[in-house]
Design a protein that fits this description.
The chain has helices at residues 13-24, 51-56, 61-65, 97-110, 234-247, 249-255, 300-322, 326-337, 340-362, 366-371, 373-378; strands spanning 5-9, 28-32, 46-48, 68-76, 83-94, 114-116, 120-127, 130-138, 141-146, 149-152, 171-181, 189-195, 202-210, 213-220, 259-270, 283-285. By secondary structure, it is of the alpha/beta class. The chain folds into 2 domains: 5-45 and 97-167 and 271-338, FAD/NAD(P)-binding domain; 70-90 and 171-269 and 358-378, D-Amino Acid Oxidase, subunit A, domain 2 (D-Amino Acid Oxidase, Chain A, domain 2, 2-Layer Sandwich), CATH 3.30.9. The radius of gyration is 21 Å and the shape is globular. The N and C termini lie far apart (44 Å). The structure holds flavin-adenine dinucleotide (FAD). Flavin-adenine dinucleotide (FAD) binds at residues 9-15, 32-35, 41, 43-47, 120-121, 153-155, 157, 159, 175, 177, 266, 268, 287-289, 293, 298-302, 304. Flavin-adenine dinucleotide is lined by residues 9-15, 32-35, 41, 43-47, 120-121, 153-155, 157, 159, 175, 177, 266, 268, 287-289, 293, 298-302, 304.
C-alpha cells in the first residue's frame, strides 16, 4: 500500500484512530487539524477501559492516562428527594483531555503519520461521485491536498457534510461544560441530576477529578430530546444550567464555593449511528461526524477512536485494494456496518435510548419524576 495516500480531516480520537491504522497498513497519511495544537478543545474527561484500544496503543495506556478513577454513581431526581446509588462494573477513568489526545497523536506520529496543525479544511472538491482534493487554510494561505482516499473526522461541524446526503434524523445536542476548582463534595461518585421542568428533559452531571477539581456537564437527553423546542441557542442552555444550580437542592449544594476555570458550550451529535459512512466513493466519515457516539457516558472517545480504526482497516482491505469499485464500496460498508463494534453501538443506543424516551415522554414535571422514580431506576446503568 506504500503508493497509496490518505488525508484525514481532524486530529480528534476518530481521526487519529483512522490515521494510526492507515499508517500501520502502509498508507501515507496526512492529518489536517484546524487548531494550532491537538486536543485543545476539551471534550471528554471520562473514559472507560477498552482492551481493543489499549492493544492498538500500548500496554498500560489507560492506567497511565487516568488521573482519578470512580466506580460509584448517584442519580438524583429533580427535586432531590429521590436518589439511586449504583456501583458500576467498569471503572470510569478521569483523564486530562489535552494530554490524552496528544498521546494518541504521538503514537500516530511514531507510526509515520504527518499531522499538520493550523490547517482548517474549508472545502471538498468533488467530481462525479468522488473527492479529488480538499482545500485547507494554512499559514501561507489556501492549499489543496490531493490523495487517493479522504477521511472526515472533524467532529460535529464536519465540513464535508452535504446537507442533502445527511440523515434527517440527526440531532446536534447543545452541551455546556465547565471545570471547577475547590470542589469540596465527595470525590468517590459520579453525580447525576435529572432535570424536567422545561419542556424537554436534561441531565446535569458532576465528575470529580480528584484534587478538589470536577467537570460539570449539562446536556439534553438524547433520544428523549427529539422535540422541535430543544434550544440551539447556547445562551439559553447556559442560563438553564446556571439556574439549575440555584434550584436543584443537591446540585447547588455540591458546587457551593467552587470556582470555574474552563468553560465551553458545544454540540454533541446524536442520531442514527452508521449513516453516511461513505457519502462519496473515496470519502469515509467517522466519529462524531457520523454519530458514532454510544448512548451512555464515558464512551464517545473510545468508540470514535475504534470506529476510526475499524473504518481505516476496512477501507484498506476493500476501497484501496479494489480500486473504489461499486462492489468494493458495498464490501466496505458491510465490514463497518455489520461489525461487532457497530452492533454494540446500536444495541447500546437502543437499550438506553428507548426506555429513556418512553420515560420522559410521560414524566414531564419534577413531582411526577419522584412518583415514577422506580421506572427511571430501571435504566440507570
Ligand atoms: C462537552 C463534551 C463532553 C464529552 N464527554 C465525554 C466523556 O467524558 N467521555 C467520552 O468518551 N466522550 C465524551 N464526549 C464525546 C467525545 O468527546 C466525542 O465522541 C469524541 O471526541 C469524538 O471524536 P471525533 O474525533 O469524532 O471528534 P472531535 O473530538 O470533535 O475531533 C474533531 C477534530 O477535528 C478538528 N476539526 C474540526 N473542523 C475542522 C476543519 N474544518 N479542518 C480541520 N480540522 C477540523 C477539531 O479541531 C478536532 O480536533 C463528550 C463530548 C462533548 C462535546
Amino acid at each position: 500500500m506504500s503508493d497509496k495516500s490518505a488525508v484525514v480531516v481532524g486530529a480528534g480520537p476518530a481521526g487519529l484512530g483512522a490515521a494510526l491504522t492507515l499508517a500501520r497498513l502502509g498508507v501515507q497519511v496526512t492529518v489536517l487539524e484546524k487548531e494550532n495544537a491537538v486536543g485543545i478543545h476539551r471534550r471528554g474527561e471520562t473514559i472507560r477501559f477498552h482492551q481493543g484500544m489499549e492493544d492498538l496503543l500500548y500496554k498500560g495506556f489507560f492506567a497511565e492516562q487516568a488521573i482519578h478513577r470512580i466506580n460509584q454513581r448517584t442519580y438524583y431526581s429533580h427535586t432531590g428527594k429521590k436518589k439511586a446509588d449504583r456501583k458500576i462494573s467498569t471503572w470510569n477513568l478521569i483523564i486530562e483531555y489535552p494530554r490524552f489526545v496528544q498521546t494518541l497523536a504521538k503514537v500516530a506520529r511514531e507510526a509515520g503519520v504527518e499531522i499538520i496543525t493550523s490547517a482548517a479544511v474549508t472545502g471538498y472538491n468533488k467530481t462525479a461521485g468522488r473527492v479529488a482534493s480538499l482545500t485547507a487554510q494554512v499559514s501561507g494561505g489556501a492549499k489543496e491536498f490531493a490523495a487517493d482516499i479522504f477521511f472526515s473526522a472533524a467532529g460535529h461541524n464536519d465540513p464535508s457534510a452535504d446537507k442533502a446526503k445527511r440523515a434527517q434524523s440527526r440531532l446536534d445536542i447543545p452541551i455546556r461544560k465547565y471545570l471547577v476548582r475547590n470542589y469540596a463534595a465527595r470525590d468517590t461518585h459520579l453525580e447525576y441530576f435529572f432535570h424536567v421542568d422545561e419542556t424537554y428533559p436534561a441531565i446535569a452531571a458532576i465528575f470529580p477529578r480528584g484534587n478538589r477539581e470536577a467537570e460539570v456537564l449539562y446536556m439534553f437527553l438524547t433520544d428523549a430530546a427529539r422535540k422541535p423546542e430543544i434550544p440551539t441557542d447556547f445562551k439559553k442552555v447556559a442560563g438553564i444550567i446556571d439556574n439549575f444550580e440555584t434550584t436543584h437542592p443537591v446540585f447547588g449544594a455540591m458546587l457551593k464555593g467552587s470556582e470555574r476555570y474552563y468553560e465551553t458550550n458545544t454540540l454533541i451529535p446524536m442520531g442514527d449511528v452508521g449513516q453516511d459512512i461513505l457519502p462519496y466513493e473515496n470519502l469515509v466519515v467517522v466519529g462524531d461526524s457520523a454519530g458514532h457516539v454510544e448512548g451512555r457516558g464515558g464512551s464517545g472517545i473510545r468508540s470514535s477512536f475504534m470506529m476510526g480504526h475499524l473504518a481505516a482497516q476496512a477501507a484498506v482491505k476493500t476501497l484501496l485494494a479494489q480500486g473504489f469499485s461499486e462492489p468494493a464500496g458495498r464490501d466496505f460498508k458491510k465490514l463497518v456496518l455489520e461489525s461487532e463494534q457497530m452492533r454494540e453501538l446500536k444495541d447500546l443506543n437502543l437499550k438506553f435510548g428507548l426506555p429513556r424516551r418512553a420515560f420522559f415522554g410521560t414524566v414531564t414535571n419534577p413531582g411526577a419524576m419522584d412518583l415514577f422514580w422506580f421506572a427511571l431506576e430501571f435504566f440507570m446503568r
